[in-house]
Here is the input.
Amino acid sequence: MNRLTDWLSKRSYSKIIILTDDNSSENCLPLISKYVGKQYSHINILPGEHSKSLESAAFIWNKLLEFDADRSALLVNLGGGMITDLGGFCAATYKRGISFINIPTTLLGMVDAAVGGKTGIDIGNNKNQVGLFAPAEAVFTYSVFLRTLPHRELFAGFAEVMKYGLIYQKQLWDTLKLADPMHITDWESVIVSCVKIKEGIVKLDPMDKGLRKILNFGHTIGHAVESYSLENEHSPLLHGEAVALGMVVEAWLSFKKTRLAKNELDEISSHLIRIFGRKRYEKDIVDTLYSYMLNDKKNTTNAVRFALLECIGNAVYDVNCSFEEIAEALDYYLSLKAPNL
Ligand code: GLY
Here is the structure.
């Protein structure tokens, strides 16, 4: 963590404000605070996706004003994807933009949300509807924070890790498909592999106009299921859990639409279901999911576009799928046998 102290000592910010939620405030702020120095202000919000809202953004902007943060202030986003998305959005818009850095504390944050400059908030239960591309000045990743994570969060982040293997690096998938996230000791190298893949893709397509869309594999269905779950379930799915489900459904769409081989579909489904389980939904959920998908900013009014696999390790984007195809893909998921956990 001395890297953070060094980095800060080479810059002169008028003020440092650390943004946390209850979890990162309790588990991670005590580990990081002495490396930031004594003089910082602290903003804390409630944990969970429901906090990625306009109300939270207004709360943070007001706090920044209260702390007299000027244009030379630095916001330090210490937390998971919700905190880095929301904090990045608030920093990028406050006084037309102040600097921010991300210190992700979840696996999902480390391999995805904190990297690549996407910031934003949800509107109601529709994910990431308002936001902007704004790169963090720096991202500091400390795998030691993973020790503070509940197991459920670690598994959810592992879904995003597996996604990188499926869309870009078969070798990574081959290694990870047999791994148990609870027994991985060298997280550092797993995170480095994923971040290198993401940075390489973002460099080629920072504004998400082309290649970057392959990062959405599993997310078109995943975001819709996540929104549904946020609206209807007492204990909503985590983002990564919804993406794990989405990757199985979208692997079936890949089999149908982009020539993914049947043996690879079977391999993907069996490993993802074994690791992440199989969620139970009624078949008629597809109507609600479809309306969420049409709201998704990546889709045009009447077509739902997917990033799909041609084979393990290679993805394509902007593949239109019909309502019937999506319904059939969801049937496939629901027909799979739940693992004996
Ligand atoms: N999370 C997908 C992206 O950053 O493009």
